Amino acid sequence: MANKKKLIYPMLAGVVALATACSGGNPSTGKTAESGGDKPAEQKKEPVELVFYSQVADYDETFMDVFGNMIQKKYPHITVKHLKAGSNKVADVVATGQTIDVMFMSIGQADTLTTYDYQYDISELIKTRKFDLSKLEPSSVELQKGFANNGMYGLPVFTNTLSLFYNKNIFDKFGVEYPKDGMNWDQLKDLAKRLSRSEGGVNYNGLVMSSSANIVLNQFSAAYLDPATKKSIFTTDNFKKAFDLLTSVSKIPGNELNAQTWSLAGQQKMFFQDQSAAMLLHFVVLSLSTLKDQFNWDIATYPQLADKPGVGPQSYPTYFYVTKTGKHKEDAFDAIAYLTSEEFQNHLAKKGMLPILKDRVAGMAQFGQDVPMLKNKNVKALMPEKFAPSALTKVEIVKGQSPGHTAFFEAYQNVVLGTKDTNTALREAGEKLDQKLADLFK
Description:
- By secondary structure, this protein is α/β, with parallel strands linked by helices.
- It has helices at 4-8, 63-74, 90-96, 111-115, 123-128, 138-147, 168-174, 185-195, 211-216, 237-249, 264-272, 284-290, 329-338, 342-350, 360-365, 395-399, 401-416, 422-440; strands at residues 48-53, 78-83, 102-106, 154-158, 162-167, 197-199, 202-209, 225-226, 231-232, 277-283, 297-300, 318-322.
- The chain has 2 domains: 4-160 and 317-377, D-Maltodextrin-Binding Protein, domain 2 (3-Layer(aba) Sandwich); 162-313 and 400-440, Periplasmic binding protein-like II (D-Maltodextrin-Binding Protein, domain 2, 3-Layer(aba) Sandwich), CATH 3.40.190.10.
- The protein is built from 18 helices and 12 strands.
- 47% of the residues are buried.
- Belongs to the bacterial solute-binding protein 1 family.
- Its main location: other.
- Residues 1-21 form the signal peptide.
């Protein structure tokens, strides 16, 4: 990814994260730092090696700096070994018989855990280690409980979500006021209408987006499929509301899309490279990793639904999972529990990571303090007052994401380019998705 050294190398939030060494701590005493119990006398623990693995190659060069060294400093008896992804896909790792103690991945990849039978319910460890789940952002806990059938396979460590990024230069050029925090969708679309125009041979779009990111994290909590029937829900009222909201943006006069601009790459290019789009709704991490000083930009909150004030998009957390095959489950749990500690989370927030703690006001107060490009930016707008409930609550839903994206893109393209009406586009795309899902789940 672009600008890894500037921002993303130090920042792993959903795709990547940011961290430097944390202050050290005492060796594990059989309780996590979050136990709340009396601290027993320190005792020397037997050395253990914990093997961490993610199938995301972005971590290959950064894992030890970001996580491993900090865990070892906190727990000197633990040696962290990071198994690089590289060409080591999960199936290859399984075939070698390599033990993995901790797997980590975003919720969108979590079906890998169950596909290869690595899932392990840590509910008992949560009790015996006296870990306080209530300190974590609630939707990330509920999401995991849904995924694990009311158990817990892992702990969330950082997250990603959507926000509104805007080009101040375009607003200044046309004498339009900047977007305000707390705007609803109608207000945002009205603002986009005032900016959408053709001037000096340049077509300016008021608002563009990452369409797939916005549908996956939609405020209606609509998924691509019903996990019980394993069939598309494209034609349901709830999904149609989410779809209609996104496609309505392209119907703003002057904000239309064409064959060159409707795609993910096309809309992002208008904002980041061409600088012909005034505002962008996109993933926080990918936006911050792409933005530099190419233009004067800032951030505003994601638009709200008029009937759901304060509710933003969904959260897209990354979880660290103690595996079924691990030989040192208590030590592995202590290690990942430390990554949720206030000390560790606050340190990472300073470096540009979206905190996973429930008290995100305190966390966001320090967000980006160690990242020069975020100075004087409205970083508090990166997190909503409240996340919408997650739609990715079942293994089947996560597993169906890839064919779901393909079907969504087809329907979205047809509607924004005007080749099909919404009902026809969704019905036909849903039928194709049903065929793919039947093959996927047979």
